[in-house]
């Protein structure tokens, strides 16, 4: 998602003024995700090919219609890969659950509260004023479309899956939508708030959504809604992916 610094400066300043930077929460979440990797790692590198790339993956670009719609564009790529006639703008305006603002406020406990960025896209993906969404919003959009189309595929949340298992999925021809950053750079300063059910959600100005379609021992291949097919350092990808709490989604038969 093109969270350009100048274009997002107004949103950034407003949210910063109300004090919603909770770096400690984000760091704890990253530690918990890293610990879960050790618990969930059920495959060794010997159990899947050393390298693999899904060929002829259909690439879509979010620009110019969806300047902040990277996640929904990445989902549309997945749907197209499975032969479904999804269109990115229709997915963004007709299926993606959205809320126009975060509607943050300070609770009696002194914590900042606001709308759930996991379940909704905050803002408008057809403008520069969008923020992000998490797996919940993408799964809702995907499954509503799949039901309307009569498909037996369903979107499933794979968040917390060991990264080695993601490579194993790719080696079986299953592309994985991943939450990462623009250019696979380290995350910019994170800000966030609690939802009414107590879940902490956060976002950064360079947060992004894309699709993992290949890997080698040293690199990963990403279908990026901004840059197209891009190769990144594997360790850097894994670090950024962990900083986004290992959020990922696949489509599978149900």
TrEMBL record:
Pfam families: Peptidase_C39_2 (PF13529). Residues 56-225 form the Peptidase C39-like domain. Gene3D superfamilies: Cysteine proteinases. This is Peptidase C39-like domain-containing protein. It comes from Marvinbryantia formatexigens DSM 14469. The lineage of its organism: Bacteria, Bacillati, Bacillota, Clostridia, Lachnospirales.
């Amino acid at each position: 998602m093109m969270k350009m610094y100048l274009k997002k400066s107004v949103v950034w300043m407003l949210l910063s003024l109300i004090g919603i930077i909770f770096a400690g929460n984000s760091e704890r979440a990253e530690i918990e995700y890293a610990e879960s990797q050790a618990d969930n790692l059920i495959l060794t590198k010997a159990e899947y090919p050393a390298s693999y790339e899904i060929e002829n993956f259909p690439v879509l670009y979010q620009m110019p219609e969806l300047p902040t719609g990277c996640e929904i564009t990445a989902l549309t790529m997945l749907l197209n890969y499975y032969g479904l006639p999804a269109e990115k703008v229709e997915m963004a305006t007709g299926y993606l659950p959205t809320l126009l603002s975060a509607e943050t406020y300070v609770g009696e406990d002194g914590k900042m509260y606001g709308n759930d960025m996991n379940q909704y896209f905050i803002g408008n993906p057809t403008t520069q004023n969008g923020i992000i969404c998490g797996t919940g919003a993408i799964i809702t959009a995907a499954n509503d479309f799949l039901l309307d189309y009569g498909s037996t595929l369903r979107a499933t949340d794979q968040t917390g899956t060991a990264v080695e298992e993601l490579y194993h999925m790719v080696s079986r021809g299953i592309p994985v939508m991943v939450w990462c950053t623009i250019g696979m750079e380290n995350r910019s300063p994170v800000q966030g708030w609690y939802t009414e059910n107590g879940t902490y959600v956060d976002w950064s100005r360079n947060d992004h959504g894309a699709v993992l379609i290949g890997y080698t021992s040293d690199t990963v291949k990403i279908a990026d809604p901004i840059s197209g097919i891009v190769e990144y350092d594997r360790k850097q990808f894994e670090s950024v992916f962990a900083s986004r709490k290992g959020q990922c989604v696949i489509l599978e038969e149900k």
